Each structure stands twice: as C-alpha cells, then as structure tokens.
Amino acid sequence: MVNIYIIVILLLIITNILFIYAYSRKRKEEKAHQRFKNEIAKSININIKNPVDDFLLHQLTLYIKNLEEKYKSEKYKRRNIFSILDTLSEGIILVSYNQNEIIRVDFANSFAKNIFTTENFVGRSLTEVVDNHNLIELTLKSFKTNKDLEEETSFYYPEKKYFRCQVKSINVENYRVIILLDITKEKNLEDLRREFLTIMSHEMRTPLSVISGYLETILHEPNLDEEIYQPLKKIEEEISRLTRMFNDLLDIERLEKNIGEEKRFVYFNFSNTVKRAFDFFKIVADKMSIEFEEQIEDDLYVFGNEDRLLQVVYNILDNSFKFTALKEKGEKKVWLRLYENDNTIILEIEDTGIGIPSKELKRIFDLFYRVDKSRSRQVPGLGIGLYIVKTVLDNHNARIYLDSEENNGTLFQVILPIKTNNETEV
Questions:
Q1: Residue 57 Rama label (left phi>0; alpha psi -120 to 50; beta)
Q2: Is residue 66 domain-shared with residue 124, that is, in the same domain?
Q3: pTM score > 0.85 for this model?
Q4: Which residue pairs, CB below 8 angstroms and at least 24 apart, start in 188-197?
Q5: Total domain count for the chain?
Q6: What domain range includes position 400?
Q7: Are 326 and 376 in contact (CB under 8 A)?
C-alpha cells in the first residue's frame, strides 16, 4: 500500500516538473515573439501594448509588402523610361547641382554617351565628361538664373557636328535636363545656300550694272515714246531692287566676319539719324494710307557705325510697313519712338499689323527665314533684313527684343548702350 502511495507521489512530481518545463518554454517563446514584434514596431514608432494581439504585426507585414510591390513597380517603370530614352536620336542628360557648385551627371542616354565617348558617364562631374565650354556655361547659367536656356554649339563626333543645346528645368529642385538636337544637316544646307547666294551675288552685280547703265542712257533720250518709257522705267526699278538684294547678301558676309566695321565707329547724334528715317518713311506711309507717328527725343548720342544703325531702323520700319499693309480690317498705324532710359538709348518700332504667330518668334531673326510663307508671298524678299538687323546690333553690343501676337501687331525694341566722348577716346 505504501508503495502505491510512493508511486502516485512520484508521478505527480514528474507531471508537475513536465508542466513547469512546458509552461516555462512556452513563456520564453511568447516573450521572444513579443520582443520581435516590439523591435519591429519600435522602428516605425508603434507601441504594442497587448502581447497577445497580432493585429498590428499583421498590418505591418502588409504595409511592408505593399512598399516592396510599389518599389518594384517604380523600379520597373524607371527601367522602362530609361529604355525609351536610350532609343531616342537626341542626346538626353540629367544633371543635378549641389552646394559646392558641382554639376553632377545622374543619367545619360546612349546617344549622349556616344557624342562624348566617355566611360563611366553617370555619377561624375559634367566638366569631367563634357569637353565643351559653351554647354557647361549654359548649364551653369540655367541653374543660377533658374531659366530654360538654348544655344547652338558644335562637337567633334568624330567629325564636326552642330547641335542645338537646350537646358530645361524639371519638377525637382536643383535638377536640369540637357537636350542635344543634331542640326548638322540644317547648318550644312544653310551654309551651301549662303555660299551659292554669295557667289551668285558677286557674279550678277556686273551684268546688272551694265544693264542699268544702258537703261539709264535710253531713259534720258528726249524723244522717247511714253509707251516705251513706262515699261523701261519698271525694268529699272526691278534691277535696282535686285541690286539692293545682292548687296545685302554680300553685306551679310562682311557683317558676320565684322570686317572693318569697328573702324567706322564714331560718336554721333542718333536722334538725327532716326529723324532721317522717319522723314523717308512718312512718304511711304502716305502712299500706303498708314498712319505714322514719332516720339523722338533730341540729341541722343551713341558710339557706332551710323550707316549700319540707320540700316537697322530702315529694315525694321520696312518690315513693319509691309506687314501692316497686309492687314485687311482695323487700324493701320506705325509708331517710331526714341528715348533715354537707365543709361541706355531705347529705339521702339511698333505697328498694328498682322503680327507673328508665337511658334515663329524664335526664328524670326534667322537667315532666310520668312514668317507664314502663304502670307509673306505677297511681300517680296529673301528673309535677310531682320537677320542683318540682329547681326549689326550684335556688333554694337546692343540687344533687340520682340513682342508680337498674331493679328494684334508687333513691337521691336532695340537697347543701345550709351557711351560718352571720353569713353570712346580711351
């Protein structure tokens, strides 16, 4: 009997020991589980107070999984965008700008890498990978002025090629995208056309002078019949127009090279020059039935080539009158203004003409460019007048601005620096 009691007591003791061991192990697992949950929760500032509740841990797991899926999706989209950019036939470079004034390359497509033939393009400074001072300066200026900028430049790729470089802002601060457009074919065609017209101008001047001389002799015949005189007079006018056109083409070559231009710079009364232009075009205005007003301040002096600056005024006025005359309805008026402002001389020519479409404004000063060819066919010319204006003003360190809206007129504003007699003698 005693043995039975001893066995029962031993079994109870063993059972209690096993229970205590199992309970202790379970508690350790629960504590470890709780520590794991608290560590994760702590990293996202969530305080789990109930050790039994797994709801927050479940939500956290879903949140992390969702983040992973979003990351994978964004990574996939980004890879697709970069793949598309790599197929473009334009150079694309993404750059960032830091406090140390270093422009870093963050992305470059295949076309851009091929232009500069540089390994390890991404992550390096733009000055390390791009051997083009103009592009670097343009990009730096865009960051500092916070403006989109554009400029033409050339690279050797491997032969010389011309590019239109655009630096544009994006919706991320201190980032810019550089776009390189290959315009080599356009430039080569323009050079060929320019060379052809220059050669033709040289060759045509002599025969035109001979024809003009014979016509002048015939027209001065005292007994010339009126029926013969009028057609010959018309021919003489057309020959004069052609001669002026060819002279303009030859002028372009001289102006672009700035051949002998500065030698003809003098200190002169620009007010009187502008008044001469007004007097001439007042006759034109009366013939065209266009109202013409002037506001010219007296005795405004500039340092420059008087003939060239007179040509600037003539060319802009000629443009204004021609395209104001095309206006079918409404007021036809041209204003000529000259005044001093903030140590500069301002020349303004404004009209109520047919205006210029916004998409055409960037090219208005390009050589041989004519606005809206369907309408400009009514106006003779090669599209060189405003190009001459821009080139002359560049040679005078002057600026020209254009404000125009289709069917609402145009305003040309020329800003000339003032130089005193003392400055010109230094």
A1: alpha
A2: no
A3: no
A4: 190/367, 190/368, 193/368, 194/252, 194/367, 197/249, 197/382
A5: 4
A6: 263-425
A7: no
Q: Three-class SS string for 359-420? A: HHHHHCCCCCCCCCHHHHCCCCCCCCHHHHHHHHHHHCCCEEEEEECCCCCEEEEEEEECCC
pLDDT, tens digit (0-9, with 9 covering 90-100), for 69-113: 665 666 555 565 666 666 667 888 888 887 667 788 888 887 877
The values of phi and psi at residue 107, to 5°, are -160, 145
The Cα diameter of the chain in Å comes to 170
Distance CA 91, CA 130 (A): 12
CA dist., res. 349 & res. 294, Å (int): 9
Q: How many CB atoms lie within 10 A of CB 38?
A: 16
Q: Locate the DSSP E strands across 15-108.
A: 91-97, 103-108
Same domain, 236 and 290: no
Helix and strand numbers (H, E) in the chain are 12, 12
232-270 tens-digit pLDDT: 888 888 888 788 777 777 777 777 776 666 677 899 999
Helix axes 270-288, 306-325, angle to 10 degrees: 20
Residue type present at position 394: D
| DSSP H or E segment with residue 175 | strand 175-182
Is the same domain home to 245 and 289? no
- Torsion angle of the four alpha carbons 332, 336, 341, 344, in this order, in degrees rounded to the nearest 10: 130
